[in-house]
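Title: [Solved] Aldo/keto reductase 3D structure

Original question kept below for reference.
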Amino acid sequence: MKAIPSLPAARVSLGRSNLSVSPVCLGTMTFGEQVGQDEAHAILDRALAAGVNFIDTAEMYAVPARAETCGATESIIGEWFARRPGARQQVVLATKVAGPSRNMAWIRDGASDLKPEHIVAACEASLKRLQTDVIDLYQIHWPNRNAPAFGALYFDPAKETENSTIEAQLRAMETLVRDGKVRHVGLSNETPWGVMAFLREAERHGLPRVETVQNPYALTSRAVDNGLDEVLWREQVSLLAYSPLAFGALTGKYDGPGLDADQPELGRLARFESMRLQRWARGEAVSVAAKYNALARAHGLTPTQLALAFCYRNWRVASTIIGVTSVAQLDECLAAWPVTLSDELNQAIDALRWQHRDPAQ
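Solution (posted by the thread starter after getting help):
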């Protein structure tokens, strides 16, 4: 068998918590759609053997979201725990409660408000699917309020609605922490205002403090650098960077053929129509990704190596979440760990960003 790429033994502390994780996290949203259970378990085995001790999932996975596969990813992971005695004790497990409905009527009947009782019930359902007694990091998947996310560029006051308050959300988290079902809490797809509001309410009322923010961070999507990075650094909240390969656009696979629906073997942006409606598939996002891919090749790197090294070596990032559909893809991502970027290459990266900004934001 091919040698397993390995990560350094050093761990990263998340926020001010006692959670100690590998600098690479295994994202699992493909499990249950593109990846069947047997292959998913092989990927999990390989990741653990390579030194990855951090697994991230969500109640709404697999992706693309469908009623038929909602919760499937957590169930696959739970079955892995059941079949691998001792594995649960070796990993830091993160999952997420979905925010207000984004056209997913199968989650809480499409509720437009994430209420405290929803958070508690969702956590208990995740615990059952994951076949565990506790979730190490429980995250709110997207804001329970009017806020720009998932490619929306602007805040629009006209879209304001009444939703459960941040204090109410944190009190639900407090219940879960008190009952021993959750160890620490985090956010995802959050804004600088949102992070500060959660921190303020936690301090004001003695509620659980958010330790992490899971946001997109990639060569073509660097909104984190526009102020959120200062918030996270000053407040000691850790960034979990997701989609570092821009849904495959930063691997080079779409440079030539583009997102031709007749070539689904290329990846999810080509395979699933719903994925082609997302920010990663915008025409400018794919074309600018090709420029970064060309930059990588010009410097003797693969596009994947450049994209991952950009995150792996970035002071802003605590752990980079990689999503794969095979053991071979996992090995490729882990093998990029030793890659470093020269000052010249980093300057070229910033020059491209200055010219094109963040087309997949």
